Predict the 3D structure of the following.
Amino acid sequence: MKNVTDRTSNPFGMRPPFERQDAGNHPAVFGYGDANADFQVIGDHPGLHGGETTGVPFTATDAGIGVQNLFRDAGFVTGPQDSPRLEDLFADYIHMCSLPDGREPTPAEYAELERYFDAELRAINAHILLPVGERATDHVLGQYTTQRGKLDLEMETLHASEIRGRGFMVVPIRNPTEWEEADRETILETLESILASDYRQTKGVATTVG
């Protein structure tokens, strides 16, 4: 079933429960892209992965631009860097709100916004979840697979791996600012391999690894 919306930013009308941003920044960096996407890239928070000044995930920081350029090379992203067009890709954060000085959210602040992220993830209903960085990967593996207790949270090992979840395939991505020489090529090859496969068969399949 397709979502009936042509809204690129915040297609489901999310309203954050607090506004603690610096003056001039967006109070929240909402989910953005194709609401009918098969692929969902999941970042941490605007201070790390960008968007405080643009309102668009994965813009305006080194880590964010690194992610955007990866998906641009894989064919998901076109258009301007600060207002890109996403096809078959939805981008969002586990913590959408901007915080003063770009600081990291507290555990309580992450918990406060968890239900918003979960609601958006279930509305998008993508086949492939692509968490970026340690915290987003920890959250996605813990909430949407049965594998978290079986895996060490070592991003250099989890990077570009394919982990079957509860109706999803999870493909963790190491933060671009931490990439070593082969990391970019590895995740790009993984994305291209998934695109060339019958990846939609992952929907509803809850298998295990390891």
